[in-house]
Amino acid sequence: HLAHAPFRAVELRSWIVRATNTGISAVLDPRGRIVAQLGLFEEGSLVVDVRGAGRPPPYARFGDGPVLGTLGALLGLALAASRRSASAG
Description:
- By secondary structure, the protein is α+β, with helices and mostly antiparallel strands.
- It is built from three helices and three strands; from the N terminus they run αβββαα.
- It has a three-stranded antiparallel beta sheet, covered by helices on one side.
- Strand 1 and strand 2 form a beta hairpin.
- The longest helix has 24 residues, at 65-88.
- The termini are far apart.
- The model has no long low-confidence stretch (mean pLDDT 90).
């Protein structure tokens, strides 16, 4: 799971704090860099200054809605165009 955390941090432009019982605990910055970590089965604590992420990127705010809306509009236009050409011929 830690291998995927840098991608999520960059995608959301957010800090990631990953705490585990037996795995690798880590703190990642918004650029996906590991700022601090504890190794496998290592006990301890991490102290890191984590700042707010700010405004989330568009996909985090709107999700798949704009993409699905665009695809629906294109499908509607394609159907309308095919009906027009079928009725003209």
